[in-house]
Amino acid sequence: MQHDQALIDRRLLVVEDDPLIALDLQDILQKAGAVVIGPANQLSTAEGLFQQYRLDAAVLDVRLEVGTTLPLADRLAAAGIPFLFQTSDPGAIGDAHPTAPVLRKPFRSEQLIEALQALLANR
């Protein structure tokens, strides 16, 4: 797979509670040259990573085992950090973040990379 340089050394927070999907996301992003922060499987862990690292973008599963990532999405938006949702239930987002890209699971790795490249294009 050929990619441009958009993801090289970019710090991307990954929040996903399914361990297999989390590992897959981590693998896809690392192969594209990104630095993966996480993956976090709980909102509290993700918020700690958000506070600890300077992030370039985030990939958020909407529904976690407990709660959702919508409070974190609010904090990311307030901090000016772009993010996308990846979910099997886009309805769970509601109208909370209408401008955030949504990847519906399952998706191809190229779709994830392209969506992140577009998010980071203006940064």
Relevant terms:
alpha/beta, 37% helix
Compact overview of the structure:
With 123 residues, the chain is α/β, with parallel strands linked by helices. The protein has helices at residues 19-31, 43-52, 70-79, 109-120; strands spanning 11-15, 35-40, 57-61, 83-87, 102-104. Strands 2-1-3-4-5 form a 5-stranded parallel beta sheet, with helices on both faces.
Helix/sheet category? alpha/beta
Distance between the first and last residues' Cα: 23 Å
How many domains comprise the coordinates? Answer: 1
Q: Total number of β-strand segments?
A: 5
- Overall mean confidence score, pLDDT: 94
H and E string: EHEHEHEEH
Count every helix, treating DSSP H or I runs of 4 or more residues as helices. Answer: 4
User: Shape from CA axes?
Assistant: globular
Strand content: 15-25%
Q: Which CATH architecture would you pick?
A: 3-Layer(aba) Sandwich
Q: Name the CATH homologous superfamily.
A: Response regulator
Give a description of the structure.
With 123 residues, the chain is of the alpha/beta class. It has a single domain, classed as Rossmann fold. 37% of the residues lie in helices and 20% in strands. A 5-stranded parallel β-sheet has the order 2-1-3-4-5, sandwiched between helices.
